[in-house]
């Protein structure tokens, strides 16, 4: 059985893991609350995507590819959220869970870009 490659993770990796799991948690909690609505399914799948990526990262599975996929995966979620919530944004009332998630995702994108650019 394979074991995680924790000794190859930098502090920046760990920060990215925390941000990805934070976003995953928000998506899973909100998604389960929306079920069985299709948006709930999408939220749950999104959360599971973040969890799956973290697991692959921990097992040192093609990390550079994970970074490359994670950048648009996370970035598109930020853009879609902004498009779908434009009225809320312009009204100035953003739920704390949404704000926390988007800040985490923005930080994750920055980390993923750096990791991608510096990976072998």
Structure write-up:
This protein has one domain. The chain is 80% helix and 0% strand. The protein has five helices and no strands. The longest helix is centred in the N-terminal third of the chain and has 24 residues. The chain is globular and about 45 Å long. The model has no long low-confidence stretch (mean pLDDT 93).
Labels describing this entry:
120 residues, mainly alpha
Count of strand segments? 0
Report the sheet-strand fraction.
under 5%
| Tally of separate helices | 5
Low-confidence stretches: none
Large-scale geometry = globular
Domains counted in the coordinates: how many?
1
Helix content: over 70%
Please specify the SSE layout and strand pairing:
Elements: H1 11-34, H2 38-58, H3 63-84, H4 86-91, H5 96-118
In short:
By secondary structure, the protein is an all-alpha fold.
């Amino acid at each position: 059985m394979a074991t995680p490659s924790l000794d190859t993770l930098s502090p920046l990796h760990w920060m990215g893991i925390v941000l990805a799991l934070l976003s995953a948690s928000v998506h899973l909690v909100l998604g389960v609350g929306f079920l069985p609505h299709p948006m709930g399914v999408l939220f749950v799948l999104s959360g599971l995507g973040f969890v799956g990526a973290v697991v692959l990262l921990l097992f040192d599975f093609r990390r550079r590819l994970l970074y490359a996929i994670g950048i648009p995966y996370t970035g598109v979620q930020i853009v879609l959220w902004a498009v779908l919530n434009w009225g809320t944004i312009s009204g100035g009332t953003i739920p704390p869970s949404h704000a926390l998630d988007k800040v985490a995702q923005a930080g994750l994108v920055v980390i993923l870009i750096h990791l991608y650019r510096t990976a072998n």
